[in-house]
Design a protein that fits this description.
Elements: E1 3-4, H1 10-19, H2 24-36, H3 50-59, E2 60-61, E3 65-70, E4 78-84, E5 89-97, E6 100-104, E7 108-110, H4 119-122, E8 125-128, H5 131-145, E9 151-154, H6 164-175, E10 187-191, H7 195-202, E11 209-213, H8 219-225, H9 228-231, H10 234-248, E12 252-258, H11 266-276, E13 281-287, H12 301-313, E14 317-320, H13 324-327, H14 334-341
Parallel strand pairs: 1-2, 6-9, 9-10, 10-11, 11-12, 12-13, 13-14
Antiparallel strand pairs: 3-4, 4-5, 5-6, 7-8
Helix pairs in contact: 1-2, 5-6, 7-10, 11-12
The structure holds iron/sulfur cluster (SF4).
């Protein structure tokens, strides 16, 4: 297997071209082709000598991620199924609203965490993505949009903190000022509450946005929806979030999927408000997307509105999000599962 060129940091690219016998400035030129021009063919790198291009092609893979299928039309939410070098496939969601382009990335092929209402969790875990594949996801979306995404969210398939090193490496590549230059504050990591990951990220000195899936205000309900709660219970997750907020000076977003009769009562909203009171927090309420294998139903609109009113009365910033994946009949993980079952 060749090394994925998009998995190398800037300094590693410079070192790599030097090892191939070229001067350091060729590394900077190569970086520009990769992330300034975003070319996907060695032959297109016109200012690199032909013998260096040949050596690069012999040693490095340039196209780690390829488009297999795309839903939706230009200018609206689109779901992309992408193929990897070993035949595995992953999903991305391209969210466009006016000039704003947000890319929802996968961090793993499948997921170990088995959240009850998640198609990805139901399909099981295959492997971690390499940093070069994660960066490849961004470049594929940039090719479709004709421009880089303004915001990147790790909310697709997989638990980013279960693949910490490769996700962080990818973030450093996306963040590099002479490349895609996607600022840390425009990158969100969404976790089901993996405490060691929250703690590590707090110490990185980066202002990455953190989003934590709660989905319930008590351990019993949360454990029913999210088995990870047995290992990392609510109080401990929130304590780690508090440290994260103190160290990064960032608000934390808490995701809460409303499931009819399970976690959507006014009493549960009050309990949630009490839990989050000590934190700089905002709450994203998400209507449940129907998923095969989970019997839960979407909350009634008046119940959702009541839930949000309780949070707002308690002084919390809360929004009811439109589940865009559900609108295109392909919520998280469902495109990939359809292909696995085909
Ligand atoms: S919601 Fe996220 S962490 Fe939970 S199973 Fe799905 S991909 Fe994994």
């Amino acid at each position: 297997m060749k090394t994925l060129i998009h998995g190398l940091l800037f300094e590693e690219i410079v070192a790599a071209v030097q090892e191939l016998g070229a001067p350091a400035f060729r590394g900077k030129q190569l970086w520009q082709w990769l992330y300034g021009q975003r070319v996907n063919a060695w032959a297109a790198m016109k200012n690199l000598p032909a013998d260096l291009r040949l050596k690069l092609e012999e040693n490095f893979e340039l196209a780690a991620v390829k488009q297999l299928e795309i839903t939706g039309e230009e200018g609206e939410t689109r779901k992309l199924l992408a193929g990897l070098g070993d035949g595995e496939c992953i999903e991305e969601v391209l969210l466009a609203s006016g000039e704003r382009r947000t890319l929802c990335l996968s961090s793993q092929v499948g997921c170990k965490f088995a959240c009850a209402f998640c198609a990805s969790g139901q399909a099981g875990f295959r492997r971690n993505l390499a940093a070069g594949e994660i960066v490849g996801e961004v470049l594929l979306a940039a090719a479709i949009w004709g421009d880089r995404p303004g915001n990147v969210v790790f909310m697709g398939v997989g638990e980013p903190f279960d693949n910490y090193d490769e996700v962080l490496r990818a973030i450093h590549i996306l963040n590099h000022g002479e490349g895609l230059a996607i600022g840390a504050r425009r990158i969100t990591i969404s976790t089901c509450g993996v405490i060691p990951g929250i703690q590590r990220l707090a110490g990185e000195g980066l202002q990455i946005e953190l989003s934590v899936s709660l989905h319930a205000p008590d351990d019993a309900t949360r454990s029913r929806l999210m088995p990870v709660n047995h290992r990392y219970p609510l109080a401990e997750v929130l304590a780690a979030c508090k440290v994260y907020a103190e160290q990064t000076k960032r608000l934390i977003t808490f995701e809460y999927t409303l499931v009819r009769g399970l976690n959507d009562s006014a009493a549960q909203a009050e309990q949630l408000a009490r839990l989050l009171a000590p934190l700089p927090a905002r709450v994203n309420l998400i209507p449940l997307s129907p998923v095969e294998g989970f019997a839960g139903e979407t909350s009634a609109p008046d119940v959702s509105r009541q839930f949000i009113r309780v949070l707002e009365r308690a002084g919390l910033n809360a929004t009811l999000r439109d589940s865009q994946g559900s609108r295109i009949k392909a919520a998280c993980g469902q495109l990939r599962i359809r292909r696995l079952n085909a």
